[in-house]
TrEMBL record:
Residues annotated as domain Pyridoxamine 5'-phosphate oxidase N-terminal: 30-148
Classification via Pfam families: PNPOx_N (PF01243)
Protein name: Pyridoxamine 5'-phosphate oxidase family protein
Residues in the signal sequence: none
Amino acid sequence: MLVTTLEDLEALYGPSSDAARVKETDRIVPEYRVLIEASPFLALATRGPDGLDCSPRGDGPGFARVADDRTLLLPDRRGNNRIDSLRNILHDPRVALLFLIPGVGETLRVNGRAAISADASLLESFAVDGKPPRTVLVIRVEAVFFQCSRAIVRSDLWNPERHVARSSLPSAGQILAACSRNRIDGSDYDRALPERVRATLY
């Protein structure tokens, strides 16, 4: 049976608790600011003309800067230049962010609207080793709330005994070789990757 109406969905799940409702704010309260400033990683969700995208973002804790209680600043560090998220934002400014903090079960969710800034002074304020990002997302916050720890607890995400050996999975080069039908030499790619990542981190 497919659930196709809001009434059927709400009948299956029942009402949310008072705690689940009051935790949502329309601004970054001091307690939420502490969580943002402790986070070195987030997932950024966007929507474009061809569908949805979710992209990882990471740097030192607090890399997503709280400018004020309604504004987040997110530098766009070096990547593969697909710029999927940025293309989507030009089409639809709505964004969603999910912050993770290593070792902590709760996550933080932020919804808002983003604009892409190339202001030189703003970029320079995010420089690392003299290298500024090419753009910074200026996110107008519309909703902020924490997510309880159940998903992290169920996944046992932070348990080092559950870490997966990278060697047990296909390497980046193997994936590229398969997807390109060996047009890309996977072995060469894997050999060069560690140094390329180090040299182009910022």
